[in-house]
Each structure stands twice: as structure tokens, then as C-alpha cells.
Amino acid sequence: MAIGHSKGKVALGLSAVLASSVLLSACSQNNSTSASDGGSEQAGSLKIEVFDRGNAPAGLTASDNFLTDYVKESFGQPNNIDVEFVPIPRSEEVTKLNVLMASGTDVPDIVFTYDSGTFNKYAEQGGLTDLTPLLDEYGPNLKAFLGEDTLKYGQYEGVQYSIPAKRSTVGKYASFVRQDWLDKLGLPVPTTTEELYNTLVAFKEQDPGETGGKVIPLGMTIAPGQYESLIWSFIQPVTEQERFELTQTLSSRDYPILLPGFKDAIQYMNKLYNEGLISKDFALDENKETLTQNIGSGLVGAFSEDNDNIFYPDGAYDVLLQNHPDAVLTAIDPYTNSEGKHAKPVAAPNGMYIMVPKSSEHAVEAIKYLDWMASEDHLMYIQNGIEGEHYTLEDGVPVTISDMSAESSNKLMGGGDIGIIANGRIFESQEKNNEAFIKSFKAQYQDTIAKSLEISNTDAIEPVYTSRPIEAESKYGTTLSEKVKQLIVKSAMVAPAEFDATYESMLKDYMGSGGQAILDERKAAYSEQQK
Q1: Does the pLDDT value for residue 42 go beyond 90?
Q2: Is 451 helix (H, G, I), strand (E, B) or coil?
Q3: Is the dihedral of CA 373, 356, 128, 22 positive or negative?
Q4: How far apart are CA 474 and CA 348, in angstroms?
């Protein structure tokens, strides 16, 4: 399908000031038509949030490109709906969304967030449209695509207040090691925590990368992709009740801070830090820029990461090979727990939470749009582009054409941010999802990615599902997420003799800042579920 390029621009004024407590009363005042009666008296327009990542090619924007034109011409025109995309900076997603939701006037008709606490807060404060009747009437394709296991994550107290995106795969993390360094030193691939430790010591002492003393045996940051595999491997087996009550879900991520073994994990990080085996300035590298640079420069011997992150074009592996053509990274799964398993967390089956503000007068159009995306081959087109120009089909799986022109490549800009009902490419089976995931990367990396994907799903620790939101987690989640990072950093970086006192002090601060309130509410919630 040939798509014309629209020159219309989106102008949107955003407040620069965010109140400390977001009030959503404005979101409920302009809802002139109840969602339960089928939606709006006013038809013909739809405003859709889109992430602006600041990386658009020249002449294009997040809200004005080939794929936004495709939506306007393939969905908007046949349905007589004027579609407008409203850009929100990805790095300021929650902050900007809070401003818009509080305004009740400038907010798009479709908004979204990855943060469960933000979603629960909006639903609790009455700022969202009940989508249950609209899904039944206007969303048959959407319901079939998502399924009940995914849809339940968009419910608040049994009401469907959001449409959760469906994940193509739930695996998150793998670890990697410089295979060429192992070969040079005659070392085996590490398969246990102890073997990894011995490898790290050898990397430091023998410097197989000839870094001139700059070697970083284990790359580390304060981002979850680097430390979660290590930490969860120390967590001890617990009962279902203990896991429910002692887990703390902060900003859509389960933290085992109260589970037995967490302190042991942080003490192990303290050991690695004091022996010079992990990145010295890991506490300053939450955005992973320094780690990525150090991997590319050939300074890092091993590290954990999201299972796909290093393989993207111009990513860490590409840069490493530019600087060190003989370098080889092998995917490994070294961290072992007390049962000999390689336990690590996986994601919930849902991705982002797609919401329709209560103030929207176009809830029907919103559900029609999401249902359109789930029908025919529209999602396929948004995610993959045009067969023959952007991909070829191999056994029904689209394989990206590696040497496409810049003009063709630019047409795919924003596909992941426009195809919001899916996190990743989704087909009729998990096997095909995995195959498509692997084949979306350069052929030279595909064997390693296949192993990385397998590792990320091995001995999976699934998120704790709660049938009702834990209000204290919504209230304290943002604060406590930072407290966890502070605990990890300060406890890991002190002298070994100061570890116990530092850890206990930081844990006390955490519990006093909302951790105890979450624990108490989770205990009550578990008791409720048993009745």
C-alpha cells in the first residue's frame, strides 16, 4: 500500500510544573457520554499518545511519518475519523502524562504507561473510562488477540480500566562473557556462581584483553538488567504465602528486598566491589551509557543484560567488533541458587497499560482503533513494513532485509511505538514468536541471540499476581524504588567491616518510608484471598 506523507504538525502545550500529588478530578468532568451506553455523541476525531524518543530521521517526527500516515489513511479515512498523534518524550513519560491527566482538557484519548502504580492510581482516583462494555461491543478482534490471561492485568477491582499490551516473550535477562578471553586463558565457560567468580579473578589478574590495567571483570550498573540475575540467584526457596507477603512490587517490578537471601546477595556484591571485580562507578551509570561504552571499548569481561540489548544496530556488540574484530561474546547462565537452578525473573504477560481518560469523548473510537490494529494484517504492517522492501517471509516469519536503503529504513521509524497492543512481534505460537525475535537481528548474531533468549526463560521466576492493587505500592512505589537503589549502592560500596551496619540502617530507612506499609497490606491481602 502506498502511503502519502502528511505535512501536518502537532502543536501541544505542556505544563512544566508537576504537582506533588496528581489530582484527576478534571478528568471526570468533561465525560459527557457514559462509556456504558456505547461512547460518545461526538465522533470523527481521535488523539493518540506516541512516544517521542528524540531519534527521528531528518524531516520526520514521532507524530508525522510513514506509519502515522498509514494509520490515518487505513483506519482514519475509512471510518471518517481524524487521527492525531500527540508526542510525549519517552524519558519524561510519567511526568508529562501526569500533567496531561491533571489538565483534563489537553489529554489524548489514548494514553499509556508501563508503570502499574501509575495505572492503579488513575483508576483509583476515577480518572479512567470503564472499557468493559466497549470491549464487548467494539473489540472482538482485540479480545481474541490479547486473551483473558493478559486482559486481567488491565483490571482494577474487577473493572477493565486499561487494555494491556501483549508480550511476545516474557524472558528478560541473560549474561555474557568474552569467549576470546576464556580461550586465551584456557578457561571453560562458567556455569556456576563460583566458576564465574574464578573467571572474574583470572580476568583481573591476567588481563587477557591487554587493557593496560583498565580491565572490568564484571560490568555493573544500577539498572536492573545488570544486578537482578545476581540478586535473585541468592533468594532462598519460600512458601507461596511468604513470596506473596514479602515481595514488594515497585513501578511494575518485583523486588525481593524482604525475601531470605537478599542481604546475602548484596553482601556478595560488596565482596566483588571491594575486590575490584565490578565496575568502580556503577552507582553513577543507571542509563548504562558507561557500561555500553566500556563493552564496546573491549574493557569488560562479563556482564548481565536484557537478552537483546547488545545486538541492535550500532549497539554494544557492533561497536566491540569495530574496535576488536576478533572479539566473541558468548551467552551464559552462571548464577546458581541453593537448589542448583539458574533462577531469574521474567516479565508479566502484559506490557504497557493502554488507557482512555474519563474526560475523553471518543472512547468508542479508541477501542475501534485498537480493534482495527488487532485485525487483518495491520499490526504486521506496522511492525514489519512492506514485504519485499522491508522483509522477506521465511516459513511465515518476516526476516528483515539487511541492506535496505535509508529511505526504506526510515519508513519503519516508530513501529514499536505505534503498534501499542503488542510488545514484540506476535504470531500464532510461542515458537514462531521466538523465531521472529531471533530473525529480527543480524544473521551473525542469531545463534547467540537464540541462546540468550533460551537463558532468559530458564528457571523463570514469574511476577507475583495480585487480584487487587496494593495501594501502599502505588503510594510509595516511586520513593521506594529509589530507596532500593540507595541500599544496593551504599551497602555494596562500603568496606566489608561496615557492611552489616550500613545495610541494616538502609533497610530501616526503606521500611520506614513505606516498606512496612506495603508489608502490612500484603499480609492483609493474602488473608483476604484465603477466605
Answers
A1: no
A2: helix
A3: positive
A4: 18
